[in-house]
Each structure stands twice: as structure tokens, then as C-alpha cells.
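Sample 3 of the quickstart, ligand EPZ:
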Amino acid sequence: MDRIRIQGPCRLQGTVRASGAKNAVLPELAATLLLEGPVTLRNVPVVRDVQTMIKVLRHLGVRSLKLEGNSLSAEGGAAGDPEAPYDLVRTMRASILVLGPLLARLGRAKVSLPGGCAIGARPIDYHIEALRRMGADVSIEHGYVVASCARLKGAEIVFDDRTVTGTENVMMAATLAEGRTVLKNCALEPEVVDLARFLNACGARIDGAGTGRIVVEGVPRLRGTAHTVIPDRIETGTFLMAAAATRSGITIERCDPSHLDSVLDKLQECGVVLRRGPDSITVEPDGALRAANVTTRPYPDFPTDLQAQFMALAARAEGVSIVTETVFENRFMHVGELRRMGARIVEDGQTAIVAGPSPLLGAQVMASDLRASACLIVAGLAAAGETTIHRAYHIDRGYEKVETKFQGLGARIERIS
Ligand code: EPZ
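Result:
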């Protein structure tokens, strides 16, 4: 199993380019099941979750699917047996995003129920409840979500909590439903907005994406188009945390600063000096690094997907930071590993109290999930000595060429296969 080895402490410098957003391209790939004709997605990150989704789509009959560089082309449309098997879904929960499109396009779907994951139980009851309100028969049989309907009907859907993939799944299903669907208390994430932008370019009629109320007028069919995926704000945020934690000066280009307001504001509160360009962010070197409190919440608040990376930064900051996780119930798996590197952290339920600055020391550590592994890279770059991160496969799920990108910034980082 691959490991990542870092010789720290590192001073980063230069420029790095953000990749396309994993959490935007996954629903956009699932949306190709809805389409007729050729479709092209550009700025696609070549990460393992994308390759898994491609396998799922091939299994569901999407033809001529080709990923060349960062461009994907295909002949849209589901065909054949609409079953997304356990072997594929168990490696990536986001496979559930094929449920809405299959039901809308073929009137039936069988998708393996995603189990729990390291960061929480992560049920999909909101997805199922919404599809039932649109007239689908949905049951759980032998570990599968089995759904069918003659044709989905528009309905009013009010989500109990803001759910990102729930909003995306139902929004996709509603594009081919009969009549109007109104989604309330839906997610506001930029990835939801990008999916709506893509679907509207395919002929859908979606209004209000990015607000808490989305209205979808169903249409008879959708045709393929060409679409460029937005930059990955979480990857961008990870580079920012790495630069701040190592007091380095770097520029991230081809990103979208407007998707990171809460994160940039928090970093400035910590004393990090940064400049926002139209599609770039520059961090000045040698900035002060003061403690700050963070509470994760749905967009536009501070993202849960940057909580772990922020904790590595907080371990190096002057003072006490209080980090509260409100989105997932088990997202402190990285705390024990940071402690192994010398961080001083006390956990109290959904809150972690981080006292800094601690002189982090390189160690053998274990990645437990995607963002925890990114946290350990940030800590390894700031730590004195050698850090080896085991189960590096977690990072490959969502970061494109991570060690190459950090090497380009001058880090002594390598992969041990
Ligand atoms: C998306 O997951 C992202 N994944 C996650 O990124 C991200 O952490 C999360 O949104 C929150 O921002 C993708 O976009 C592929 P939710 P999702 O539904 O949609 C509860 C990463 O690292 N809930 O918004 O699964 C749920 O348990 C990943 O890239 C229900 O109770 O998250 C959670 O507590 C990790 N029932 C809360 O809502 C439901 O039916 C928000 O989850 C759905 C959700």
C-alpha cells in the first residue's frame, strides 16, 4: 500500500494550479445518465473517485466514455440494467448520485445502499423521502435501494437539513419529471450551482441554485453539451493551510476566491496576509499565525472538508483555537495522529481545543479518510524530521497528483509504492 513520506519542516514557494472540483464533477458525471447525444466535461480532476464514477457509468451503459488528460467525453444516456453494484458503490458513497438520474431517465433504479463511513453514519433518508414525494416506489432490499415509477412528478420538497448530494440527486431527478418541483432548505454549495449551470446548458429549466429555494420545471429530454468544471475550493483551501502552517509565500492560480470567503476571512483573522485576484490567491510569507475559533457549517460558512487541515494549522498557531464540527458526528479521526506528532489537543464531544504553538515532530501516522490525510500532509510539511503517512490511498480519492504539486512548491515529499 502506498505511503507518503515528507522531510520537514518545508518552506513552500512559487505557484500551484488548482484542479477541477471533485464534488462538482461527480454529480455532473452522474448527470450524463440523463442526457442524449455527445457530452464533454473539461477541467476534470484525475482522481480515484472520478475513475470509480466512470466505472459505474460504463456499467450503467454510458457509451464512448473517454478521459483524455483533464477532458472527458461520452455519449450520454443510461441503457441496459440500471443497477449500481455493491462492489463499486462501497468504494465511493457519491455513487448514490446515480439514483435520481436513473429513476428520471429509465423509471427504475437499483443502487447499492452506501454504508456508514469513517466520518459518520451518513444516511440517505432525505434523498429517499424526496423521491417518494415525487411519486417513486422506493424500498431497501438486500442492501440495495430499489426504486421505480412510471414518471416522476413535480413536488414540493423541504429538506430537514441542508444536504449537498441530496439536493443534487433530487434536482437531477426533477429535470425530467412531469411539472414543477420546488426544493426548500436546499444546499447552497458552489458545486450545486455548477451542476445546475451544466444541466441548464443541456436544456434543463432550473432556477434558484445557490439560494435556499430551487425551482425546476420538468422537460421531456436533455441533450449533451460542453461544460468546464469549477475549480476545487477544498484543494485550494488545503494549499492555503499548508502555506500558512509553514509560514510560506505561494500563489494558487486557476482557483475561485469567491468560493472561499469564510476560509479567507478566517485565515486573515489568524494574521495570514493574503491577496485575492480574480482567479488566484497569494499568501505572503512569514505572516504571524494566531489562534482562532472555527465552527463548521454548510456553505457559505466554514467547510467541514477543511476542518482537519485547519486543525494542523492551529497546532502551529499562537494561542488556543476551539474547533467545533457540526456537520458530521465523527470527524476528529486525525486528532490522535496529530497528537502523535506533538500537537496539544483536547477533545470534548464535537469540539476540539488546540493549544499552540507546538513544535510538531515527524512521525509514522495513519490516514483514516480523505481530508484527514490532507491534514497529515499539512502537519508533515510543518513538522521537524520525517513523517510517513500510511494508507495514502485516501488522499488519491480527491487530490490530483498531490506530491507532484507540493514538489513543485519546493516540498521534500515523495510517494513510496
Ligand atoms: C457532501 O457530502 C460532500 N461530498 C462531502 O465531501 C462534504 O463533506 C459534505 O457534502 C458536506 O459539505 C460530495 O459532494 C460528493 P450532506 P454529502 O448530505 O452530500 C446528514 C469530501 O471530503 N444527512 O450535505 O453526503 C448527514 O449525515 C466529502 O470531499 C442525513 O441525515 O453530505 C450530515 O450530517 C466528505 N440524511 C448532513 O446531513 C440524508 O439523507 C450533511 O450531509 C443526507 C444527509
